[in-house]
Amino acid sequence: MNTSSQRELRDVVVGFGVVIAIVAVVAGVFGPTWTSGDETIDVRAVFGRTDGLLVGNPVHAAGVKVGEVAGLDLVEQFRVQATLRIDASVELDADATAAIVTDGIFGGKLVRVDIGGADRIIGDGGRISYTEDAVVLDDLLGLIVSRAKSAREAGAKQ
Q1: How far apart are CA 26 and CA 142, in angstroms?
Q2: Does residue 8 lie in a domain region?
Q3: Which among 9, 58, 142, 149 is placed 20 to 30 Å from 105, CA to CA?
């Protein structure tokens, strides 16, 4: 083999290696998470409003992602049952709470779980009894505007 064909072969091998490395990095970042059924548990939480919460949104405990929303189902009295798929190493006590919050000021919705402090642990298929519904920004702004109008009217009467 002459020098130019060795160089071309080396370039092809290096190029092929770079392409494989890029594909592996992209698959690792954007690909599905591979977990076995033993590593997660499904816990249910029932909310009155879940405005903006979607399947796949994160579940956080103490600011750390510990799971994701696996399902949303309409149940009795027009309430929404969220199925939360949580890392099995996170032990939720029987008095744990779940709240739907916004990630930052204008971010997406997530479920914030507070672990609790009871003696009993919620197992796979269990239910978080204490929940807090989503706050809708439009409702909050409407409340602020109505209170401002009331305060202005009360000040004008004096």
Answers
A1: 44
A2: no
A3: 149
**Total structural domains within the chain:** 1
Residue 58 Ramachandran class (φ > 0 left, ψ -120 to 50 alpha, else beta)? beta
**Contact residues for 152 (Cβ-Cβ < 8 A; gap 6+):** none
151 falls within a domain: no
**Residue partners of 55: CB distance under 8 A and separation at least 6:** 69, 70, 71, 72
CA 103 to chain centre: 9
| Angle made by CA atoms 50, 113, 55, in degrees to the nearest 5 | 40
The whole-angstrom separation of Cα 92 and Cα 8 is 59
Name the helix (H) or strand (E) containing 11.
helix 3-30
Question: Residues 27-56: pLDDT tens digits?
Answer: 777 766 544 445 899 999 999 988 889 999
pTM above 0.85, yes or no: no
For CA atoms 129, 134, 139, 140, the dihedral sign is positive
Specify the pLDDT at position 65.
93
Amino acid at 115: I
- Residue 118: Cβ within 10 Å count: 12
Tell me whether residue 41 is in a domain: yes
Q: Is residue 49 part of a domain?
A: yes
- Please state, in angstroms and rounded to a whole number, the distance separating the CA atoms of residues 22 and 56: 26
